[in-house]
Amino acid sequence: MSHAGFTKMNPPAGTASMNWIAEELKKLDQPKLDQLSSLHNRFLRGISGGKRLNLALAEAIHLDFSSRNLADAELRGAHLAESTFVGASLKRASLFGADLRQCDMRQCDLSHADLRGAILRGTNLERAMLQKADARRGHLMQRDGGGELFRLNNGAEEGGAASMSGANLTGARLSGDTVRATDLTNAILRDAHLAGADLSGCVLRGVQFEGADLTGANLSGSILHGAILRGANLTNVNLDHADLNAAIFDETTFRNCDISRAILPRSVDEMDLPVVDIVKRHLSWILSVGREGKRANFAGFDLSHREFQQYELSAGEFSRALMVGTNFERANLSMAQLDCANCMDAEFNRARLRGTNFSNSVLNRANLHSADGQAMVIIGVREFPWPTNFTNAVLDGACLAQAIFPHANFSYASLRHADLRGADLTHANFLNADLTGADMKGANTRNARFEGVKRSNEDG
Q: Do the beta carbons of residue 185 and residue 166 sit within 8 Å?
């Protein structure tokens, strides 16, 4: 395939092909981009005079692509550094070898896009959709005057250090370099291809790995609080010093890898007292305002399916605890620390959750019906409210119906298909939260903040 101004090339085996390459780079400004984008929109709609957007090897830095429909666009090798793509659709777009450094691509739709060899250093892909995108290693190649091939960029070798928090990477193909040193908090990686990927030191809190192929991947030193590893292929995975506190796995998850040097949830059998006695000692600590007893510290322990119904646990320490199916019905957890905990399917019906910290926790399908999450009033030189904190938590499918959460902080939380009917959410903060499919019938949202909220799969 050839066009005026482009040269046919034949890359060597093992490199992804590029059919043409510009003899000199095109440089775009914003008015020119707006014009080409309008023609592309006509092309997508089948209107006469439309033209597919082709920015192959163009220089288009610092431009605004936000909220545009750029599906099927040709952006191979384009220099797009520090551009803004917030909410844009790049479905099936070719971004092979594109320079996307420091781009803002939050909530961008990159499903089925070709990102092989793209440079993603410092790119913000929070809440982006990358289902079945291909982000494996690749290089742009060109022949020099002597006919020898040379690289135009270093591709994914310059990747990593991106933010993919909350991104949907279902079925995506990712190379060893693409996700290096990347924040993947609460990302969806179901059925993703991550064989040999370098995830060492990555933040993988709450990541859903069901069905993912992680054969030979390096997860050493990674943080996997609340991650779902059950059903993933972990053959020969390096888990040295990986923090698996609050992670979900079963007896077969690690059968083909070594976890002897991983950090695992601790059994309550390792505690100095039985759980019921620790709770009694904690009650004495509360009643004596710290003069007697001792604060309960369950951080990093496996408390799954245990009964804490109606217990006094205010100000208790449950950080990074594994509490799947644990029953806290009518318990008092006010000002307790449950950050980075895994509370999937847990019971908080009518629990007292005033000022409780659930940041970065997983609460999928948890029952918080009629819970009391009013802000705790802190009295000092002056009084001020201390709100219940769900920042960056995952509450997909959770029930918060009739719950009381005025002033609560749900910023960057995922509440997909959550039940919020009749809840008191006055003055609550939902900044950049995902409310796709959430039911808010009858909820009181007076003075609540909803900037940047995603309400459907089409919000991009």
A: yes
